[in-house]
Specification:
The structure is a single chain. The chain is of the alpha/beta class. It folds into 2 domains: 236 residues, EAL domain (TIM Barrel, Alpha-Beta Barrel), CATH 3.20.20.450; 154 residues, 2-Layer Sandwich (Endonuclease, Chain A), CATH 3.30.870.10. Helices cover 41% and strands 22% of the residues. It contains 15 helices and 15 strands. The strands form 2 sheets. It has an 8-stranded mixed beta barrel with strand order 1-2-3-4-5-6-7-8, surrounded by 4 helices. The chain has a 7-stranded mixed β-sheet with strand order 9-15-14-13-10-11-12, with helices on both faces. Helix 4 runs parallel beside helix 5 and helix 12 runs antiparallel to helix 15. The protein is globular and about 75 Å long. The two termini are 42 Å apart.
Length: 428
């Protein structure tokens, strides 16, 4: 059965046809990625193609069939293997970056031995490997993606996020995904400029300036698109203006190869939001729980009012303090926000619809802290507090606390919680 006949009859593909297409040989073609300042090719993106005569004559329908049959991981691994083997066969010079796509549903699949061996050979050849995930992977299951990317980075991969600008939820997640390369969606490069495009471009530029990440504009086909790419702050470009997908070209070693962003040290990093904000020099006051509650509610209201769909991270000391009323409030937050995570001793994994719970142990320093951290494309705030251990009625308990809107303090505070979330989800 060919692709055309399968579509025309409406038949559901069989596992045998999918396996046959994989075994017939997935091959890769490559599209150049150029430095917009010099016009020189500094990287290649690998794109999957099916072998001539295979039951499916294009990768798109093959992936659709594989998804229906639960075989996406096998197909995705075959595509990654073909991408790296093709790059090795082309004897690309050391320093060239090779972008390899990963399907969202296969992002955390364990690579088979064949792929692991090919990755090792590519690294030994000096190739810079970039794992490319789509924006929908960010918004579909953020915790799963963050865990998978942490593992990929430990394996030496850099990370690129593709199609940025389609879904605004992805913008608030960029600081936590921390991509080395941000690829702007075709709508920003070729579409009629809108306020939303300006909003996306500003958010991406802010992220790139803060981290040193590279911005790449896709689908540049003419001079007008190139001019738009420059206006959007892109330093790399990709599209038919520079070359169509084809065999890997003969390349010189890049003068300025892409480099991965430096990874923040984790062994010396603050362990809690309070530690991060206090170490940054924020002013600390002493207040009662009653006062702290009002400040916390105000910050949560700001998150609900933020049109940028922020990320909200909150600690409750003990899970029992995540009351039914609080659960209803955080369910509303989850409907509005890109990602909501709560922490506490004895916290269940799903304490409210759309909310991820992370349990902590009794002697964890976080169990003595109350925090609300909000990170959005245009808004960043952190309330951090440490219980002074008073033996008084609940509302009279005193806390050391600080509130900050300084991004250089808010992001490290949020990072302490995201690292805990990744560790917790990784361990099951």
């Amino acid at each position: 059965m060919s692709l055309t006949s399968a579509q025309s009859t409406g038949n559901r593909a069989s596992p045998e046809l999918v396996v046959q297409s994989i075994r017939a040989g997935i091959r890769a073609v490559y599209q150049p990625i150029v430095d917009l300042r010099t016009g020189r090719t500094v990287a290649l993106e690998a794109l999957a193609r099916t072998a001539p005569g295979a039951p499916f004559n294009a990768p798109g329908p093959l992936f659709v069939a594989a998804k229906e049959l639960g075989m996406v991981a096998e197909l995705d691994m075959a595509c990654r293997t073909a991408a790296l083997r093709g790059a090795l066969d082309a004897s690309l010079p050391a320093g060239v970056s090779v972008f390899v796509k990963a399907e969202p549903t296969a992002i955390d699949a364990v690579p088979p031995a064949e792929l692991r061996e090919t990755i090792a050979r590519a690294r030994a050849a000096g190739l810079h490997l970039v794992l490319e995930v789509s924006e929908r992977a960010l918004t579909g299951n953020p915790s799963r993606l963050l865990v998978a990317l942490a593992s990929a980075r430990r394996g030496g991969w850099s990370v690129a996020v593709d199609d940025v600008g389609v879904n605004p939820d992805s913008l608030a997640l960029l600081p936590f995904v921390r991509p080395d390369v941000v690829k702007l969606d075709i709508s920003l490069v070729q579409g009629t400029p809108t306020r939303r495009h300006g909003y996306v471009a500003a958010a991406v530029r802010t992220y790139a300036e803060r981290t040193g990440a590279v911005v790449l504009a896709e689908c540049i086909e003419n001079d007008a698109h190139l001019q738009r790419a420059h206006a959007l702050g892109a330093s790399l470009g990709q599209g038919w203006r520079f070359g169509r997908p084809g065999p890997a070209p003969v390349l010189d070693a890049p003068v300025a190869p892409l480099a991965a962003l430096p990874r923040p040290p984790t062994d010396t990093a603050p362990r809690t939001p309070f530690d991060a904000v206090h170490a940054g020099g924020a002013r600390v006051e002493t207040v009662t729980k009653a006062v702290l509650s009002s400040v916390s509610r105000h910050m949560e209201a700001d998150a609900l009012a933020d049109t940028g769909r922020p990320v909200v991270l909150a600690t409750f000391q003990r899970g029992e303090r995540f009351t039914p009323e609080t659960a209803r409030h955080y369910e509303r937050l989850a409907r509005h926000c890109a990602f909501v995570v709560v922490f506490g001793e004895g916290m269940v994994r799903s304490p409210a619809p759309g909310v991820l719970g992370v349990p902590i142990v009794e002697d964890d320093p976080l169990a003595a802290q109350w925090s609300v951290v909000v990170v959005g494309p245009r808004y960043a705030a952190a309330l951090v507090a440490r219980d002074l251990g008073d033996r008084v009625d609940d509302n009279s308990r005193r806390f050391e606390y600080a509130v900050t809107h300084r991004a250089e303090l808010v992001y490290p505070a949020a990072g302490t919680l995201m690292r805990r979330m990744v560790a917790s989800v990784s361990s099951g």
